[in-house]
Design a protein that fits this description.
With 529 residues, this protein is α/β, with parallel strands linked by helices. The chain has helices at residues 18-23, 25-46, 51-70, 76-88, 90-101, 107-120, 128-137, 139-150, 168-180, 197-211, 224-227, 233-238, 307-318, 364-375, 391-402, 418-425, 428-433, 467-472, 486-497, 505-509, 513-522; strands at 161-165, 185-190, 215-221, 243-247, 265-269, 273-277, 294-296, 299-303, 350-356, 379-383, 406-412, 437-441, 444-446, 450-453, 457-461, 475-481, 500-502.
């Protein structure tokens, strides 16, 4: 594949310099946020003189907050973090806890999503013969499928071809080919979009397809405004005829809504082809530029009726801000009938695309991972860029290994962020003692989010093993059972393992003191990172 620098650009060179950062909308927002923080601390400072008079009340208040936290429904690991915060800073910590636990900032989004979910809950009906075939293949699988469907409109599909891509470059090459085939619509929902070779090539095709009458919708997370794209980028896209919006654009005022980011990576073409995985739309994901060594990422392409689920996920997010949502125009309900192969042939395996929403109580991403660990008979091999575990997930990993399951974790050898890297290492000793095998990818950074188990089931998607993904982000993935690509996933893991160094108790003991100290300290506030 020719990776020469070319492609459409909507931004001028040099636009991201120091003065742009300072005088742009982002710079203004940061200045206003600093002023808000300064005001809050000033208020506390004004009342500092009254501390001796209210010390007794503070102690009583702290005891009350501790008892309240213990009896709350907060995750047990997060409870410990909040207990530390409130005991160190009773008043400020309690206010911060109230603020983060309240619905301030996302009440309207929650209400709108609930409305959209209710309206679309039956848009993709479950084919009974497909579900029956899955139950005959493995009753445990259909139980998991029913749980996933309970959390949203996520049917089980068959008659869908799944292709696995072991690198971002392979996904990019296939994306360009598939985008050229679009005749009706293109949906793109990505956490990160950054101008460069990858996005430039894609943008050229999108602009061409608009001229051909294809409906093109692009959505990206609002945090891109801080690092990759200016606030008016959607307007620049609309001048090309591309419908574009940011999810939760950042404003100068504090809001709990900013804690919930759109971390999904979805491309849907005409309802019959869909992509998901870890690959964002920026040049490091295809190794055109190098930031943290070689970038190891993965993705899958679904061709068949299962792509309809990703179209529905996209439309639910897109229509949060639309007054008159459109679903019938894009969702081909008749495509679901194709899940009933002629002659009862289900040899293509089963696919369950699913999403995870932070605004409900269903932690689907974590529970699917834990289900794989609990039902494994031989092995569970995992790729993840981060390892910031709550007690339940750590216990599931350790319990699987203690039962004799071959549990292997593949993590980055070159970190992208020092604190998550140190936090991951703080779990190493406990996991190793239970028999979990840990490997670090020496050429660079592993950004893949992959579970593969027993040569028959796998998950490829956007869900990391950290609090952000498991609790705070909008995520998505494809659960695969007996699909033809699962041996490819298992083989890719084994091939990549040859480029890794194994972590042992000796390497844990010999870790740099500053990394140990950082992990030791940051573990206390891991749920807040």
């Amino acid at each position: 594949m020719n990776l020469s620098d070319s492609g459409m650009r909507l931004l001028k060179k040099g636009q991201k310099g120091f003065f742009y950062a300072v005088f742009s909308r982002v710079g203004i927002m940061m200045a206003l946020l600093v002023l808000q923080v300064f005001f809050l601390f000033s208020v506390f400072h004004w009342f500092a003189g009254f501390v001796p008079h209210i010390l007794g009340s503070t102690i009583v208040f702290t005891v009350f907050m501790v008892l309240y936290l213990i009896n709350s429904r907060t995750d047990p690991t997060a409870k410990i973090t909040w207990l530390i915060v409130i005991m160190l800073m009773p008043v400020f910590g309690a206010l911060l806890y109230w603020y983060t636990q309240s619905e301030t900032g996302h009440r309207a989004v929650r209400k709108r999503l609930e409305q959209l979910m209710a309206e679309t809950g039956s848009r993709l009906p479950q084919d009974p013969e497909t579900e029956e075939a899955l139950e005959k293949a493995n009753p445990d699988e259909v139980s998991l499928a029913r749980y996933i469907r309970r959390s949203g409109c996520f049917p089980v599909f068959s008659h869908t071809d799944v292709t696995y891509f072991p690198l971002g470059e392979a996904k990019f090459e296939e994306m360009l080919k598939q985008l050229q085939t679009a005749e009706k619509y293109i949906f793109m929902e990505y956490f990160i979009v950054e101008e460069g070779l990858m996005w430039g090539r894609i943008l050229e095709i999108l602009a061409q397809k608009v001229q051909e009458g294809v409906d093109v919708k692009v959505m990206y997370d609002g945090t891109c405004e801080f690092s990759t794209l200016p606030y008016n980028y959607p307007e620049k896209m609309r001048k090309l005829g591309i419908q574009c919006k940011m999810f939760a654009p950042v404003t100068p005022f504090l809001s709990t809504h900013y804690n919930y980011r759109d971390h999904r990576k979805i491309l849907v073409i005409d309802g019959h082809t869909a992509f998901t995985g870890g690959v964002n739309l920026a040049d490091e994901y295809i190794n055109h530029v190098e930031r943290f060594g070689h970038w190891k990422d993965t993705a899958v392409m679904l061709k068949g009726p299962a792509a309809q689920s990703f179209a529905l996920m996209f439309l639910q997010m897109w229509n949060i801000t639309e007054r008159e949502p459109e679903f019938d125009r894009y969702l081909d309900i008749s495509a679901c009938d194709k899940t009933k192969p002629s002659g009862g042939d289900f040899s293509s395996g089963f696919v369950i695309p699913y999403g995870d929403c932070p605004l409900d109580r269903d932690k689907v991403g974590e529970r699917v991972y834990m289900d794989i660990l609990n039902r494994a008979r031989s092995y569970v091999h995992i790729m993840s860029p981060y390892l910031i575990l709550d007690g339940e997930m750590e216990t599931a990993l350790k319990f699987a290994a203690e039962k004799g399951i071959d549990v292997k974790l593949m993590l980055p050898g070159i970190p992208d962020k020092p604190m998550p890297y140190a936090l991951a290492k703080s779990h190493y000793r406990s996991l190793l003692e239970s028999g979990v095998k840990i490997y670090e990818y020496t050429p660079g950074f592993v950004h893949a989010k992959v579970f593969v188990s027993d040569d028959c089931r796998a998950v490829v998607g956007t869900i990391n093993l950290d609090y952000r993904s498991l609790y705070h982000h909008f995520e998505c993935a494809a659960y695969l059972y007996r699909t033809a690509c699962i041996p490819d996933i298992a083989e890719d893991f084994e091939a990549t393992l040859g480029k890794c160094r194994q972590v042992t108790m000796d390497t844990v003991r010999n870790e740099k003191w500053n990394v140990k100290l950082t992990g030791f300290v940051m573990k206390a506030i891991a749920p807040l990172l």
